[in-house]
Automatic annotation (TrEMBL):
Enzyme type, top EC level: transferase
Amino acid composition bias (Low complexity), ranges on this chain: 232-246
Molecular functions per Gene Ontology: aminomethyltransferase activity; methyltransferase activity
GO BP annotation list: methylation
Domain spans labelled DUF1989: 31-198
The enzyme's E.C. designation: 2.1.2.10
Keyword annotations: Methyltransferase, Transferase
Record-linked Pfam families: DUF1989
Name used for this protein in its record: Urea carboxylase-related aminomethyltransferase
Organism of this sequence: Patulibacter medicamentivorans
Region entry Disordered, spans: 232-264
Length: 264
């Protein structure tokens, strides 16, 4: 079904939009095993669909300008640009200078987390105990992908990430909860690259909280080339305009609120 605008979902404030793109026309169709990772370059206009094959699987994701990885996804700037802490159909993911990296052009889940961050050995020990120290963790997967694939990414580039399909609702007083997921088998989120973009994914191996339903499962990734995507989905949402002051983008230095401080 093709729809011009995102449509309301039964969950208040949740928007969804199905995409008419045909999986048979994708130039790439791969499955990432539970706990594994993926690093891929998207050209401008290419579209990536992430399918939650079995439901309630957190897919931790980072985005970078493929030509300057210092210009990377910024949770703070993205929340400000979209005026919402959740990502959904029509949201634009931006870098620390407000420049668009990717826009969500399809989403049948309706809510994705910007705040929960990635699991790590350290956070697993703090949250779950010493026995969790050597469990697989997203931060290790990010680092392994970054170092193994010949891209100019290092540990310091692992900033605050998106958790696709993960449900981290804000409480009325601003607290965070790791809640049971709202995704289901076959639901997907779809991103259009607004410039050459590196996509780094950890298909979360977490066993100790409900982000994966205590059972990590595979994710399917499809990529359409720009021409096929534009022709197949002419009504896809446009990128949101930047909301950052022009002076921030005029060569006066990069803002430091990209959420990367804890990772340095
Ligand atoms: Zn994780």
């Amino acid at each position: 079904m093709s729809t011009t605008a995102p449509t309301a979902d039964p969950i208040p404030g949740v928007l969804t939009r199905e995409s008419p793109l045909d999986p048979a026309a994708a130039r790439l169709d791969v499955t990432v095993a539970a706990g594994d990772g993926w690093l891929h370059r998207l050209r401008t206009g290419e579209v990536l669909r992430i399918v939650d094959l079995c439901g309630n699987q957190a897919v931790d994701t980072l985005l970078y300008d493929a030509d300057d990885v210092g210009r990377r996804y910024s949770a703070a700037s993205t929340i400000r640009t979209n005026g919402n802490v959740y990502l959904r159909a029509g949201s634009t993911l931006v870098d620390g200078e407000g420049g668009a990296l990717a826009t969500i052009t399809g989403d049948t889940c309706g809510r994705h987390d910007t705040l929960g961050g990635a699991c790590s050995q350290e956070s697993n020990v703090v949250r779950y105990g010493e026995h969790a120290r050597h469990m697989h963790a997203c931060r290790n997967t990010f680092l392994r992908m970054a170092l193994d694939h010949g891209e100019p990414l290092t540990k310091r580039d692992l900033a605050a990430n998106v958790n696709f399909f993960m449900n981290v609702p804000l409480t009325p007083d601003g607290g965070l909860e790791f809640a049971d997921g709202i995704s289901a088998p076959g639901r997907y989120v779809q991103l259009r690259a607004e410039r050459p973009t590196l996509v780094l994914i950890s298909n979360c191996p977490q066993l100790n909280n409900p982000c994966n339903g205590y059972d990590p499962t595979p994710a399917r990734l499809l990529v359409w080339d720009a021409e096929t995507a534009a022709a197949g989905d002419p009504d896809a949402p446009a990128a949101a305009p930047t909301t950052l002051p022009a002076v921030w983008r005029a060569g006066g230095g990069r803002p430091t609120d990209d959420g990367a401080g804890a990772a340095r």
